[in-house]
Amino acid sequence: MYLLIETNGSKLWRLNYRVLGRYRTYAMGRYPEVTLQKVRDKKLEARRLIAEGIDPSEKKKMSARSSKMASDNKFRSLAEEYIRTLENKGYVPQTIDKNR
Description:
Belongs to the 'phage' integrase family. The chain is an alpha+beta fold. It has a domain at 2-54: 2-Layer Sandwich (Double Stranded RNA Binding Domain), CATH 3.30.160. The protein contains 4 helices and 3 strands. Helix content is 54%, strand content 22%. Strand 1 and strand 2 form a beta hairpin. Strands 1-2-3 form a 3-stranded antiparallel beta sheet, with helices on one face. It has helices at 36-51, 56-71, 74-88, 93-99, and strands spanning 2-5, 11-19, 22-30.
């Protein structure tokens, strides 16, 4: 675990590890937004995952994708907005049901 200081002045917490024979780097956040205690907790969790043979970086990516998919269901929100528009314009319930 180390603090990477880039040329532009940003400070980033990193953890180097090896899983399935490959060396990887796990990003744990920016300093000072992520405190040393939080980084230590993240390191322990990452070490536990590595011991189980799970790549912490891949797990982080997968959880980000799933949360984005859950919150970003654009088609559903657009369809619901369209149905509300039909209701506000005074369309008969049969037309609204067909469109739904």
